[in-house]
């Protein structure tokens, strides 16, 4: 066991004005960015392993479009080393929410959709099966009867899931919605705002969801996320992580690839959200190939940001905010 | 409607070293204390209406002893003005948790118990009925089967309730515990850590509690508390507020007296927690007479602290902490 001591902490308020471009259905994207300096017999450290949380992350898609499929049946192999090789070669299937933000005009929607297709958001196995999936997101806006009423009407568009149909704390409400919508072929997806394993335990116990969306920063620590992965395995519910925000994709790829290799051993009905924003600010950004997350090869949790990016986007004194706030005053 | 503008806010970190005397089963009692200066056509204010929250409040009794009874059947009167007069004359029934902290020795327990009796913690109607109630508090320590197992063994002591038997977020767990314990004559009490009305809605829907314990500072705003009072009325579950900490008694008395006069119209199975600590730091402290909260007669929410108390107990630079921290270093 490595023993050490945290000798210094730095906490910085980093914000990105993504709302100016209409990226995300809510306000700007922000993160509390914390760095720790550690020292000890085996590690006399620099600020080289940073951790970030995104308590102010408020980027939510209203409607998601993705392309995904089963990995040719290979996903159920019992062999961990095989699954590891498979991940290294093919990556973990992703879906993109970059192309359907509420704030986009119809023209922009068409353009970003076309760009997504050009960027390879069609997997080879999907092309053959001609599979097209559509997901919807209510961002917690409905009460329980409203959610059932709206989604019953929207069932003709065959959405795979409705995400956050009501308050994320309303386990019994989600159970009622699930019961009404599953017969219509619509699953309930939720989890990005669930604050601990106790809420997830109940969502699973109450059969309140068909897709479980962990978030790498909402739950407190990697360990809390792992406990949810294990419960999802027990209840045979696929985990489809929430991502986007500031660095959520970078973090959650570790969790979901671990889930496949060591816990679920299946890709059936599984995919990880991907949003094509803000990766340029990270030292070890995600690598997407053929609409899949390629396993990160650097050590650590991929959380470290470029110092220049942090400095520029610190609120309210960073260069970016200095200019924006000055412009607002004029 | 009064219109105005908040022109200044002050937020201060106030802590009381109650743990030094073993008062409370957890660590010291702390509060974020916020003052607001308002100005407007009808109010050009001083700091005379302050609001406080107690996010760091961590005073939990492990075992509570109280004396309480029905108010002679009068509590069910349909007349609001009668209930108002009744409150002004008799006050709202309270129970005390000052005499059973975990940190106290057996001798101290006997002494504080005797003092409580001397202070009048026997209501007249109770003396006649010779009613003695005992409540137990698990402070969320158990998992669900543990709670059932322990309380089944403790049933012989006839506790009125078991408080927070498991995680406060575990609605389905509380429902399981309730189902097992109600036949043994033990109710489940919870709520002091419930963060919004959605959690309370589900606790009520799932028949997960027999006593509902709102907290004046845990829920965000008076309005959120009022929504819970209304739901409790609908489900016919008595509200027995949590109090103690820094100023919780001062705040919650307003809510529970309002509940009696305008919502529940009943005192049956109802009482409000009282802890005899820290009231001397408040400008408008609670007034307890014959083990009852007497309605506050000053305007406002009774939240304002004495400036001298705040100054002395500010962490880490107040006089009290200066001395304590210096002593710790020596």
Q: Work out the radius of gyration of chain A.
A: 20 Å
Sheet/helix structural class of chain A = alpha/beta
Number of strands of chain A: 13
CA(first)-CA(last) distance of chain A: 57 Å
Assign the CATH topology of chain A: TIM Barrel
- Helix-strand sequence of chain A: EEEEEHEHHEHEHEHEHHEEEHH
Largest interface: A-B, 14 and 14 residues
Architecture of chain A, according to CATH? Alpha-Beta Barrel
Task: Quickly count the domains of chain A.
Answer: 1
| Rough outline of chain A | globular
Strand-residue proportion of chain A: 15-25%
Specify the oligomeric state.
homodimer
What is the CATH first-level class name of chain A? Alpha Beta
What is the CATH superfamily of chain A?
A: Enolase-like C-terminal domain
Tally of separate helices of chain A: 10
Reconstruct the topology from this structure:
The structure is a homodimer of 330-residue chains.
Chain A: E1 5-16, E2 29-40, E3 43-44, E4 50-53, E5 63-66, H1 80-90, E6 92-96, H2 106-118, H3 124-129, E7 133-137, H4 144-154, E8 161-163, H5 171-181, E9 187-190, H6 197-205, E10 211-212, H7 222-235, H8 248-264, E11 272-274, E12 287-289, E13 292-294, H9 307-313, H10 319-329
Parallel strand pairs in A: 6-11, 7-8, 8-9, 9-10
Antiparallel strand pairs in A: 1-2, 2-3, 2-4, 5-7, 6-13, 12-13
Walk me through this protein's architecture.
Two copies of one chain form a homodimer. Chain A has 330 residues and is α/β, with parallel strands linked by helices. Chain A has a single domain, classed as TIM Barrel (Alpha-Beta Barrel), CATH 3.20.20. Chain A has helices at 80-90, 106-118, 124-129, 144-154, 171-181, 197-205, 222-235, 248-264, 307-313, 319-329, and strands spanning 5-16, 29-40, 43-44, 50-53, 63-66, 92-96, 133-137, 161-163, 187-190, 211-212, 272-274, 287-289, 292-294. In chain A, the strands form three sheets. In chain A, strands 5-7-8-9-10 form a five-stranded mixed β-sheet, covered by helices on one side. In chain A, strands 1, 2, 3 and 4 form a four-stranded antiparallel β-sheet that branches. In chain A, a hairpin with a 2-residue loop joins β12 and β13. The first copy, chain A, is globular and about 50 Å long. The interface between A and B is medium-sized, with 14 and 14 residues.
